[in-house]
Amino acid sequence: MRWVDFKDSVKRFWSEYKHQKSGMLGLIFLIILLVLGIGAPYITSPDIPKQWQTGEAWIVNPKNAPPSWENAFSDQKLADQKVYTIHDMNVAESKNGSYKVYTLTFTYNMNYDVPPKDIVITGLNSNASRPQDNPLVSVYVERPEEQGVTVEKFLLLPDTQLPSKGVLQLSYLKEVKTLLFYWLYQNGIIQLPMAPPEALPMEIKLMQINQQIQLDSKLYGYFQSMDPMKVLFGSLTENGQLRTLEQVISEPVALQGDYKFTIVVKAPENVKVDLSNFEVAMVGRTFGLLGTDQYGRPIAVGLLWGIRVAIAIGLAVSISSVVIGILIGVTSAYLGGWADEVIQRITEFFMTLPVLPMLILLSLYFGGRITLKQLVLILVLFGWMGTTKVARSMALQIKEQTYIEAARALGASTGRIVFRHIVPQLLPYAFASIALSVPGAILSEAGLSFLGLTSNNMITWGQMLNAAQQNGATLNGYWWQVIPPGLAIAFVGLIFVLIGVSLDTVLNPKLKRA
Amino acid sequence: MGMSFGRYVAYRLVNAVIILFLAVLLMSALFTKLATIQLTSQVDEEVQMWVRGYTQQHHQQPTQEMIEKYREARIKYYRLDQPYWKRMWMYTIDTFFFRWGNSFVKVFGTTDIVSQIKTALARTVLLFTTSQIFIILIGLSLGLKSARHPGSLLDRTISILAMIASSLPMWWVGMLMILLFVVYLGWLPITLYSQVEVSGWINILKKMSLPVLTIVLVSFGGWAWTTRNIMIGTMQEDFIMVARAKGVPERKIIYGHALKAAAPPIITMVIFGLIGSLGGAIITEIVFNWPGMGRLYYEALQLNAVRTMMALNYMFAVLTVLSMVLADILYGYLDPRIRIGAAARS
Q: Which GO BP terms sit in this record (chain A) (predicted)?
């Protein structure tokens, strides 16, 4: 085929394909998908695949949180995830004796009916080698004004060591709970048998309050059952009257408004403190576009990265198996005789093997968790037979045509006849069946991943569904963990079916008449 | 030069048995490696247990010699002293003749693999054959209907439905069904699908409802579409044209002439579907906690019960081969032209 002819036939093909509505739709979707897949590192961050399994990156995220837009459909607005980086804060440096002191302030606008789940402090890096050199963090909060409440600004977290790469989850800290109780006491919501003297150092004061709480079984019960965030962000009064402790803890009502946070970081002068990664996360009860899974991983990010594996597996498997299938089929038809017989028996043998059990068996053989390359190999091994059957029957017809005989009479070699005369005629069929076999490959991958047989080193939709199943997502009603990955699989499948059917219509003249 | 029907059947059956045997041979080759790993650790474990038992009984440790002797006996018992190919061959023969033995761990409450599979197969038959019957009924009638009016709204709807369904994972649709009917609508109790075993006929029927609905929903479109295509292909044949020209009523053409001619592929499809359904959809059963072949496979996978998996693989292969042979035989019976082809090849 000359270059001009090739260009001409491509042009002709395109002008016909253009009129296939579903084919064009499929093509547009495919381009969007490719752009998203290629753009994944730029849209999110390039080290997502590395972080996906380790979990460190997701520590500030809520677990099993629904998407934030769910708020629009409910009468109770749940707090959304909000992360403050060092750039969102006001930073002041000062000195106190042999200590360097950093004062970071920011304002959180709490306008939800249900406050955040937690406040998480991370990313304070230092070169402290001994535990006693670790920077100390304390947090003050100033709540919106509320009539009848006397103490609006108070200490939430006393000087607490934060080792390099450490994490402070305020909801889980006993000191935070104790200080909240102290604050409730200061406002007259609870009575303590003995007033802790103001002048005492913080540690001793905390110890005293703790002792008094533990001695009073009722108080201790409240202490155990309280959700610190619901108290911190809750109203202390109702119609100008102080609420009871029972009400504050068991029937919290959110107090909306601006909360001013002051974080004080103290470190010995000889210790270098790096605040560039410093983050304070108001852990939401909802998260982003598509919520999170049980490890706090954002579903939307997984979905985006999953495109790459889906397309890579789909294309690699379908192209390889169709090419191999056609070559085997054509060879079989061309050789004829006993060679044909042997090849056909082998093909039938492979068709007889039950596919999913064989895939499971092979993945176990490869060591339980198979890599991307092994997966492609296995799927190709069980995917070429259909094409072979069709290619053989098509090649048998072509073989009988006069121009092949003519070529043979002119002394053309077998290879030349196969590759110049037979295979090009099968190309249209090949293109269509490549497109049509992509969904099958993606479904197989999803199935194997769902069974937990594929390597953890990739992000796939099947693995996301596996995680959802492990998490009991369906029975718990975590729809955002189940619906999006499955829809993505179905969507990619549909795209290739649309393209494949249109290719078939354009390239297969026999179908056009029907 | 056709061969007699009897010879044709015999030829197909022999062919099938050979293929099945080769399949088992291949699977055994893969499985023997897995079994070796497992058996080696089993021997270690048994030796340790024996040493512990001996020490308790005799108040002294057995000598190194005795331990070695015991170990060798166990190795011999599990045939680990035999070469790989020999063990593979023995495993193939055992599997092929249904001598499956016991698994090391209990699956479905027993270690006897034959009874594990009997229990599972019965439950899979119940679920999937029921669904398949629904699919056949709905699919065939819709397919015939849309073949009568190609291009109609029904016809286009079915084509689109078939296209969409072919790219949906059935098990994912199952997850959606649970979300919708169990969690959000609450029409069925959650315990039905959070537990594997459910007692009482009413509960079993209730538990069946969602998986049956799922399987039918995902599969009937494809069936209808294939039936339609077969029928439309038949409708373009010359004898239909002749019948039309003669003025035979359209209804009679479809249900009399065309359906008769289209029967072989459709009946083949039915057989394939019915027997194929016995294998069950492995993952769909897992999603619905349905204690059939798929669920058994999953539990065997989790517990590393390789012998159970091997037996299941064999069963899946038997079912596939069986459906192929049955379809072939039926096809040969209904359409004698096929037999000539087979004769020409043999």
A: transmembrane transport
